[in-house]
Model the fold of this input.
Amino acid sequence: MIIINYTTGAIRAHIYQGEEVQDAATKWLWTYNNERPNMAIGGLTPIQKLTMEKPMAA
Done:
C-alpha cells in the first residue's frame, strides 16, 4: 500500500507492507480521533465530543 501525505507544503510517500499497513492505519486513526480538531463539531476532537456530558432528557 502506498500512502501519500501532504504536510507543511511537502509531499511524502511511503510504501507500507504487511503489519506496517495496520500499524500506520491504527496510528492515523488514533491521531484523527484524539489530536486533530474537527471544525464541523466546533473545533473539538471526536473523542472530546464523544465524552462531553450529555444533557438529561426532560
Observations:
- The two ends are 50 Å apart (CA to CA).
